[in-house]
Amino acid sequence: MDADLVLIFGFILAVIMLVLPFAYIVNQRVQGHEERKLELKARAEEAKAEQLRFSNGDYSKMEERVRELERQAAQLAAEQRANGTPQLPPVPENPATPTGYEPS
Predict the structure, then answer these.
(1) In the 8-state DSSP scheme, what is residue 90?
(2) CB contact burial 31-67 (16+ within 10 A = b; e otherwise)
(3) Collapsing DSSP states into helix, strand and coil, what is residue 100?
(4) Among the listed residues 46, 74, 73, the one whose alpha carbon sits nearest the alpha carbon of residue 61
(5) How far apart are CA 60 and CA 71, in angstroms?
(6) Global pTM?
């Protein structure tokens, strides 16, 4: 009878040694999936908020970014003039608009 108990105990230990690491790995993947899902939901909410903000006419972030890009372009042009490297031709003030497009 003692040999049977040892065999049963050994079998239970072997099963536990196989199941626990598998359960740990599965749990880590589930938690990672939930985290990514929540992050995507948060990004979707941020995008909706941005879209709502732009529909109300708030373009301050975009205007700030355009100003920064203009500053960088002006700085690059000044460096090119100082170095004597060739420059691109200037962009016309009112380029031709595509057919059917009317700015509002």
Answers:
(1) P
(2) eeeeeeeeeeeeeeeeeeeeeeeeeeeeeeeeeeeee
(3) coil
(4) 46
(5) 16
(6) 0.44
Q: What is the pLDDT of residues 17-28, one digit of tens each?
A: 999 999 999 999
Residue closest to 77 by CA, chosen among 66, 88, 67, 69 = 88
DSSP 61-83: HHHHHHHHHHHHHHHHHHHHHHH
The answer on pLDDT for 14 being more than 90 is yes
Nearest CA-CA partner of 6 in 69, 14, 77:
14
CA distances in angstroms from 56 to 50, 78, 89, listed in the order given: 10, 37, 36
Supply 19's token pair.
């199941």
How many Å apart are CA 83 and CA 97, to the nearest integer?
35
